[in-house]
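Example for tutorial group B:
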């Protein structure tokens, strides 16, 4: 079955980390809507396995953006309950789609299994995705200039796909954005705290990979 030009986004919202992921995910959603692309959101309690499977079966989205905690075998939704998991053997729901998982470690095993038929692409992280934040902005994540260093590059994956880039190029564009932020912090204008940010910007860039069919486009 051919996929429809629909973006499906999961946005759990039960702890500080996923609240930041959810908030910055709004930027991607806004970009998609500006382009007239249909967006399906599974937000808060709707970010669960049953809703995800139902939405994919019903709407057949070509692009899936998963936000949440993860490990090598799974990506979680609300309250850290699995959305897609090798243990649940439901990774086949991602078949034929481009998936971007902003979640720790899921490219290590889940992404490999989800793309083994080469009819899918999976962009994610082989190790933990790490970001810093400004605690004074914890209730206003989109005003957090520290978090912006990490989330603007990660958002470039989906934004690049929305612009018609291949999965492989979208991954590359995102990695280049991480590199630009590193260069910015290495400049003389950067603060003395920038060293710790540079380390983890590089870490995220290094561990972000594109699996499966990198020639796929949204």
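The residue assignment follows.
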């Amino acid at each position: 079955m051919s996929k429809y030009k629909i973006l499906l986004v999961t946005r759990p919202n039960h702890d500080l980390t996923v609240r930041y992921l959810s908030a910055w995910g709004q930027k991607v959603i806004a970009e998609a809507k500006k382009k007239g692309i249909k967006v399906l959101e599974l937000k808060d309690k709707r970010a669960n396995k049953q809703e995800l499977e139902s939405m994919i079966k019903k709407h057949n989205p070509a692009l899936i953006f998963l936000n949440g905690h993860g490990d090598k075998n799974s990506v979680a939704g609300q309250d850290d309950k699995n959305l897609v998991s090798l243990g649940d053997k439901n990774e086949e729901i991602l078949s034929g789609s481009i998936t971007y998982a902003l979640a720790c470690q899921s490219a290590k095993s889940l992404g490999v299994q989800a793309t083994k038929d080469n009819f899918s692409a999976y962009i994610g992280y082989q190790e933990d995705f790490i970001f810093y934040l400004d605690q004074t902005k914890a209730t206003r994540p989109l005003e957090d200039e520290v978090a912006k260093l990490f989330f603007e590059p990660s958002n470039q994956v989906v934004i690049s796909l929305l612009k018609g880039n291949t999965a492989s190029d979208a991954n590359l564009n995102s990695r280049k954005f991480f590199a630009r932020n590193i260069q910015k912090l290495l400049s003389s204008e950067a603060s003395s705290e920038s060293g710790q940010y540079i380390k983890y910007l590089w870490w995220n860039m290094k561990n972000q990979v594109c699996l499966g069919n990198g020639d796929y486009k949204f």
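Residues 4-209 form a domain with the Rossmann fold fold (CATH 3.40.50.1460). Compare this with the pattern of hydrophobic and polar residues in the output above.
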